[in-house]
Design a protein that fits this description.
The chain is 40% helix and 14% strand. The longest helix has 19 residues. The protein has 210 residues and is an alpha/beta fold. The strands form two sheets. A six-stranded parallel β-sheet has the order 2-4-5-6-7-8. A two-stranded parallel ribbon has the order 1-3.
């Protein structure tokens, strides 16, 4: 399905919840799954697949040496999921420490989902002031509860990436082609070109990490 939508490279980002699973169990589980996946797609013309993670934010992540194990293809980029009640001074401090002390570039996952969270406006100001990278889900542009927020965030110029957040062919399938078409039609070609350019830059940096 992704190939038919013109996708050539995929970053697999299985969820990590620090409260539910040990780091060792998680690493073993995803490595086993990734190896099975790579064997299945070997010598096919399917998109190239990199391994990463989507990490649910936990306090003091900015001081956690294990966080490097979750970065996208062993690069400096970390996909970070938030909760509705984590946005506070401690969170902002952790993000700064991740970036300035640990050399990690966080990418805030599906920013459009947090519009009802306490501290949402402070989060947007922090993202803008600190130039934090962000992402929205392609499918959110077609979900009534998220679509207006997603479009507003794009217009504000604080969204860097559009991601499929695909979970299966049936439940939350990839909708990248539809999303990019909608962005072009409703918001303008310049936004579409910007997202494609950002993805290419990110891919070049991730692909350089072997």
């Amino acid at each position: 399905m992704m190939k038919k939508q013109g996708i050539t490279h995929v970053i697999a980002t299985p969820h990590f919840y620090a409260m539910d699973e040990s780091l060792e169990d998680y690493i073993n589980r995803i490595n086993l799954s990734y190896n099975k996946l790579m064997n299945a797609v070997n010598e096919t013309e399917l998109p190239k697949i990199y391994l990463g993670s989507e990490v649910l934010y936990y306090r003091y992540i900015g001081q956690s040496e294990s966080v490097y194990k979750f970065c996208l293809n062993k690069s400096q980029y970390l996909l970070l999921e938030l909760t509705d009640n984590c946005i506070d001074s401690g969170f902002f401090e952790d993000i700064i420490k991740l970036r300035d002390n640990m050399g990690i570039t966080p990418i805030i996952a599906h920013l459009e989902r947090y519009y009802k969270a306490s501290g949402y406006k402070k989060l947007l100001k922090f993202i803008r002031d600190e130039k934090i990278l962000t992402q929205i889900n392609a499918s959110s542009l077609f979900i009534d509860s998220y679509s207006k927020t997603a479009e507003k965030l794009i217009k504000k110029g604080i969204i860097n990436f559009i991601a499929t957040d695909a979970h299966s062919p049936i439940s939350r399938p990839p909708m990248m082609k539809e999303a990019l078409m909608k962005i072009s039609e409703r918001l303008g070609q310049e936004y579409l070109s910007g997202f494609i350019r950002n993805s290419q830059i990110l891919l070049e940096q991730i692909d350089a990490k072997k």
